[in-house]
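Is it possible to get an amino acid sequence alongside its tokenized fold?
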Amino acid sequence: MADPSSYRPKPGQIPDSPGVYKFRDEHRRVIYVGKAKNLRQRVANYFQDLANLHPRTRTMVTTAASVEWTVVSTEVEALQLEYSWIKEFDPRFNVKYRDDKSYPYLAVTLGEEFPRVQVMRGAKKKGVRYFGPYGHAWAIRETVDLMLRVFPVRTCSAGVFKNAERTGRPCLLGYIGKCSAPCVGRVTPEEHRELAEDFCDFMAGRTGAYIRRLEKDMTRAAEEMEYERAARLRDDVGALKRAMEKSAVVLADATDADLIAVAEDELEAALQIFHVRGGRVRGQRGWVTDKVEAVDTSGLVEHALQQLYGEERGDAVPKEVLVPALPEDPEAVSQWLAERRGSQVSLRIPQRGDKKDLMATVQRNAQQALGLHKTKRASDLTTRSRALEEIAEALGLDAAPLRIECYDVSHLQGDDVVASMVVFEDGLARKSEYRRFQIKGFEGQDDVRSMHEVIGRRFKRYLQEKERTGEWEERPPAGSDPAATAGPAATAGPAAAGPAPTGPVPAPAVAAAPDDATEPREDDGRPKRFAYPPQLVVVDGGQPQVAAAQRALDELGIDDIAVCGLAKRLEEVWLPHDDDPVVLPRSSEGLYLLQRIRDEAHRFAITYQRAKRAKRIRSSPLDDVAGLGETRKQALIKHFGSVKKLRQATIDEICEVPGVGRRTAESVAAALAATAPAGPAVNTATGEIIEEDDGGSS
């Protein structure tokens, strides 16, 4: 690992002009390319304290051995040079999109003497006009079959064309009128090229004028009593309209736009692009990428624009490009796009109307694509097995953890504290085993005490289940599916007040388990709820949370369950009693699985916490204050932080809130005094009635 200070440029050596910079490793390979308005400011950011850098950036600068730069005149030139270098050097730390599948295009080979219409995949070639991409090749063939009646362009391969040319006999399509048969001289090369260009114009969205022209010709032929020609033109118009019906109108007529949406998480991002031409969706494609560099949504959009239009010219770049977030320098990117199109290009975020609605559809497609990508990756048995083996090796486990439980705590400034438990078996989520907890034993933002309480409650219940059902004391055999018949999730037992995070901690008090006569059981006699222990407990957090979880297990006498924590910021794995974390490689399937489990626990916890908060807000004591609207209620809560602190405030302090007069302040104080908590059945932090049931299933 290189020390960045060993190759840091001298002060004043880097110019403050626009430019592009390259980081190279010890073998002189380019590992990262970036651009900047001000090279001095941007490059200097890479040489600050390593602890302040994003983990991916830190990995890059410690892998590099040198940095060099090139000054350019404008930011547009920097954008173009950056794209060229990324394409040339393929740096390992730059975001590179890859298609989530191989999309077929409808292609017209205008570079040939007799242009050909065909289905193409893969890299684009010069002299070929592309339309699409399409979801399926059969959709292209259906469209072409309808349009060949009106535009009888050649579709045969070079071998078939030469054979027909040699024998003087056209292929079947030439006989049935779906090819103009240039191979046997029925049309001249100029006439055939004109047909191909009309085909391209129609596919590019210029449909209305062409159909109107055909309708006029049909009417004129009927007036001149050329009924056969009129009938043929009528059928041509019908074929073109059927081809147009295959793509519904989504925007105003003649609108040409590309819509780009992004769905992302900590590790990966998915993009969806809808190509709208003439107001109709003419194509769609999807990309996925690993976030190998520290990049936000704006950066992902800029990379997508570079890759999407880097090789395009003319009409291939639309008049409008709609994005979810503008690049860091939208003016330079817009100018770059305009140069490639040859006219002005509008780059913006849709705010209202049909375009915003269509963008929402594209966004849903991006989210589904990311979910499908993760599902495919997670559902692969070989990949899951490798991930579990990597986790076992990294944590020093005797065997792969077939059942993993992950815990996360969620709250809002110490109010509505909840926790979640998610379960993964054989690397797959088992949602019937998910549990959620309310934390009522204490107040404040103390994730460590909350984690200690949750782990203690969960495994106290496990010991009770195990004690009552001695025949199931042993764990299920490896590879079995212990939760295949699991019943509905049960509550997690009342919480006990958690002690301070330091010093000896007594085991939390939990409610006694029901009698065997009333305990719900499966048909084979197995108990429900917390009967099965995991091989690994994962907590969302670092060393303090891991220590609290391990302490809770030690107090219960459980010594055969491994514990680790995953710290979100640096994605480091922490083990109990270790001062240094375990750092798994970014490409590790084990790390990917741990992150997916952690993210699922976070999602489950925050969903429950938001539901509780919404319920509390709906039943706020402030609802009874006459004349106090939603805006001033939110202002009061935001100013004081909670209903409890507001209740403790004086009338003069309440009057300090903007928009709240003395009369309103007196009404608020009176309403809160009337609803002051009395007795243990009321949560003193929120004024909410405490429910007896403190857990439930998802």
User: Anything to note?
Assistant: The mean pLDDT is 76. The chain is about 40% helix and 15% strand.
